[in-house]
């Protein structure tokens, strides 16, 4: 599958960035899980958007679908953090759930892009 190894590396590094920022903001700064998860998403999204543009997207393809994906993942990251806050669950649960969701939806988006131009 074209560029699958590049996508896998991007998702893994994205998850590491997300986790580090989350635990810095949640543990050291004392922000809520929702705010920490959303801020961590924003930092990791900038990284993944830039790297994906370099290694996966071909010139001339529309980025609308990819931007829509990132907006929906931002809402999901805040929602997962909000649920974690409401249930008083440990922060690692929010990070793990978001990582699994990101992995599944990122793979689905890649398959969609591989089959169709957005």
Automatic annotation (TrEMBL):
The chain crosses the membrane at residues 7-26, 38-57, 90-110. Keywords: Membrane, Transmembrane, Transmembrane helix. It comes from the Bacteria. The keyword Transmembrane applies. This is Polysaccharide synthesis protein GtrA. The lineage of its organism: Bacteria, Pseudomonadati, Pseudomonadota, Gammaproteobacteria, Pseudomonadales.
